[in-house]
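Suppose you are handed a protein chain with no further information: no name, no annotation, nothing but its sequence. What can you learn? This example shows the usual starting point.
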Amino acid sequence: MALAYTDLKTVDLGKLGTAVSDWKNAVDKLTTLEEDARKGLQAKSDTARWAGANATVTRGFVTKTVKEFADLLSEADSIYQVLDDAHRELVALQKKVNSLEDEAGKKGFTVHDNGDCTVSVSLYIPPGTPPEKEDDPAARQEYADEISTSLGRANDIDQSVKLALKRSHGDDPYNAGHASYESLNDAQVDRALELAKKGEDMTNTELAELNRLVKFNGQDKDGEFATEFYKGLGGPEKALEFYGTMALDGTAGNDKARLALTKDFQQSMGMALATATDPDNATHLPSSWGDQFRKLGAERLDIPRAGLNQPYGYQVLGGLLRYGDYDTRFIKPIAEHIVQLHHTQPNLFTLAKPATGGIDLDYGYNPSGKVGAGYDPLTSVLEALGHSPEASKAFFSDEDPDVYRTDGTVDKDATLGYTYFDELTDKKFQWPADSLGAVSKPHGVDALGHALESATLGHAWDDVNPTLHRDADSARIMEQVVSTYGTDPELTKQQEILSDSLGRMGSGYIDDISWGLDKNRSDSLYAPQGDADDHAQFGRDDTRGFLSIIGEYPDAYADVSAADKIYTSSMLEAQVGADGSINEGHAREAVRTGAEIQGMLDQSRADQVEAEGLKADKEYNEALEKRNGWVEFGTGAAVAAGVALLPEVAAVGLVATAVPIVMDTGQGALEQTIGDVVGDWTESNQKDSGDDIQEQRQAIYRAGEANAEVPMDHFVQQHRIDRTGDFGQDLEEAWLSGYGTGTDRENQQGYRPQTDD
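A reasonable first move is to predict its three-dimensional structure. Written in structure tokens, the prediction is:
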């Protein structure tokens, strides 16, 4: 029976606290008795000079008695440890739910127990009373989710404690010495394994409990729960077979509730595997697990549900790898092995896909349904790298990688002969279809973009609160990205699905893009103040090529345009001294360069609209419209560690974007400035222009020119600069000339639009 919400709210945990204290006293007393028995009774028995029956019967009896003292102590200590941990966690959970209910009550909300370890929250309006409070469904759901999470956690603790007490005591009241636990964590490992043994026979309630146990315990940095849980599954092969069975079970048919639970299961299992395979955690799986996963990677597993199309180990493992920040020592060899297998046997894993299946079955071993169905491990492992920044950086920067045989062992005498970056960005590369459908999106290319984001920006590609972590290795990889995609418009069009990633990468290096336009001069305003090795040096030609090409793609255009305004604003503010004086020359240069970037982007956009017509223009405006969530964040801009954060806009699936800034105030003037700049978003709206290409182009340039003016305009207002004075006129001239230079250079030196024709 599930724990009721009222049980958690009203239970007197003081009684449990008293029981904890009593068991602690019992442990202390039994410790003394056990020591006396061992050092006294046992020692005297061992040294006694008995003969005959005493030599066997009496000595054996003494040994057995002393062992019983030790078993009693072990049992008592096990019960104490479990109850002590449970008491501490339940007190915290009870306090939390009571606090949440009080908060909700002040907003007119009422909490209702659903009877399944969840609650719902409604707006309470007394009968006959006109409603005075405005309903807020999002806030109600947030309270419901938080309280339900705590209630589920409390229920899991209750179930685990029951199991632990039963196993600690055993079934024989006259014989101590059974299961022993050093903590509640140990008991919850036992409970999780008990549920896992049921496999696909788990009910939805049981699967939900397993998900909570693994989610709440599996990410602890000591790694104990995750490690013991995976060991308890029976080793690498059994772990894969368990996950594969559950993935196929949860994605079969049209059971939406089971599918939702299986998605949670995939995520919690993946995060726990990342924890368990991290050698830096106090408790972790041995490195042989990685060796075994590679061995199993190109071997067929035995999963009854898969029928005749038994999957390869890597296909199943890929579903787990999609979640978690994996240690380089574990994931890099696996990623390398998969790429090398694809290089030599491109169709190896394609042959293991089910022969038939409709869209409802097209989940494979990736129940999340995100970025592929899970049949292609190359897509999966690139997604893993997309969440593992250090590993991704090492993967793309290693100039002398190991070569692996089919069985995953290292061939020390072999040389690879290609880099992974060159391999995956080759226009002739055969990307496997990660779907059962006849036509499949290029999911592998999308995942490649995510892996490159992770490697160049130093954070997971879909991190909702990203912070840039760039160094010499990430900068070198970004130089490759710009020189490859910024000089080959056909490749970028072929891999168009990763253009949003190119936009976020460009935003994360907007400072170095500005420096590149200035030919990476050492005396440039944009030259790094610290170690230049940590910055990318693109050169002017590649920088212009990159801006020309990414301007052809709406999402990339919108991201880099916003980043340009933010970075230019921070650069302008950096020119103001403590006494209010302004470095006028640097301010002019900042305005000019920022406007030049916007001009190049707009010329590229206008050319693309001319080439593709109304459809392309609509896509650009939709890309800008999706970012209206940024417009509304105003002074909520997060500015810290030299980065401004454009938050995730979950409603439209827009991933958060991190933008480097010159100043790091953490709060105050710069946050206000960035909020104003982003809020003053000028859109190119084509609703009234019909299909007149010239009118569309004019609107793009008008909007773009106004966007380029925004940082300067706010700077002038903020610092009360006379726009009719010499400095004000200089700034205006810098804005206009910079924008004109950008459009001219893109026209003269940029790339022509790429279309599907």
